[in-house]
Every structure is written in C-alpha cells, then in structure tokens.
Amino acid sequence: MLTDVAQTILVVDDEQPVVEVVAGVLEYAGYRVLTAGNGKEALAYLEKGKVDLVLSDMMMPVMDGTQLCKRIAADVAFSSIPFVLMSATHTAARLDGCRYAAFLKKPFDIQELLRLVASVLGEQ
C-alpha cells in the first residue's frame, strides 16, 4: 500500500513504544512521519511546515489530544488538516470545539490503522 507522493503524518503520543510502532508502520507504507510527545510539541511542528494528517492520542501531559484538536480547529491555518483521535480509555464522542475525522480505539490492528489513514486522506 505504498503512496505515490509521500504525505506527511504527525503522530502525537507520549508513549514512545506506540509512537515507534505507528511511525514505523506508516513509514513502511510510504508516508513521511513526524512525531511529537504532546500537543504543544505538535503545534510547533504545524507552524514549521506542511502536515497532511494529525494522528493524536487523547491523554498526554502538557497539552492533551482534545486540547490540541480544539486549537487546530480554531486556527484558520490548520483547521483543514484532518485530525484522528486515538485512545485506550475513551470512546468516540462529540467534543465541543474538536472536529475530528475519525477515532481509533487502542489497541488497534495495523491494517485497521492503514485503512483508516488512507480513508481519511482520501486514498484508494
């Protein structure tokens, strides 16, 4: 499932083993991957360059995924970037001010992750 043009995915999670697995799978599939340990770090990446998708855990220190989602949705420069929330302890819910494209329940299957990313990015 290699992509024609490497799209950039920002993976945001404070659990390094999760980041390593997700980043590795996405890189193998042909995506360019950036990683951040919390929402504040993620915002710094967004300000530096083009990101095609944000894949973020919900529960993190400094700035959690819900706060990050709200900040992205409220910023005209970033509001068009698709946002995917991941969580082991929460389920998909309506979150005021947070418009996310999809929700990924942890633990997840690698194929499920790849299908979801391709779907959100509008790939075949």
Q: Mind explaining what this structure looks like?
A:
There is one protein chain. This protein is α/β, with parallel strands linked by helices and 124 residues long. It has helices at 16-28, 39-48, 65-74, 110-120; strands at residues 8-12, 32-36, 53-57, 83-87, 102-105. Helix 2 runs parallel beside helix 3. The longest helix has 13 residues, at 16-28. The chain is globular and about 30 Å long. The model has no long low-confidence stretch (mean pLDDT 87).
In short:
The protein is an alpha/beta fold and 124 residues long. It has helices at residues 16-28, 39-48, 65-74, 110-120, and strands at 8-12, 32-36, 53-57, 83-87, 102-105.
Secondary structure blueprint with pairings:
Elements: E1 8-12, H1 16-28, E2 32-36, H2 39-48, E3 53-57, H3 65-74, E4 83-87, E5 102-105, H4 110-120
Parallel strand pairs: 1-2, 1-3, 3-4, 4-5
Query: What is Rg?
Result: 13 Å
Question: So what's the overall shape?
Answer: globular
| Helical content class | 25-40%
- Quickly count the helices: 4
In spatial order, strands of the major sheet run 2-1-3-4-5
Instruction: Work out the strand percent.
Output: 15-25%
> Secondary-structure element sequence?
EHEHEHEEH
Mean pLDDT: 87
Low-confidence stretches: none
Structural class: alpha/beta
Through-space gap between termini = 9 Å
For the secondary structure, the number of strands is 5
Main sheet: strands, sense, barrel = 5 strands, parallel
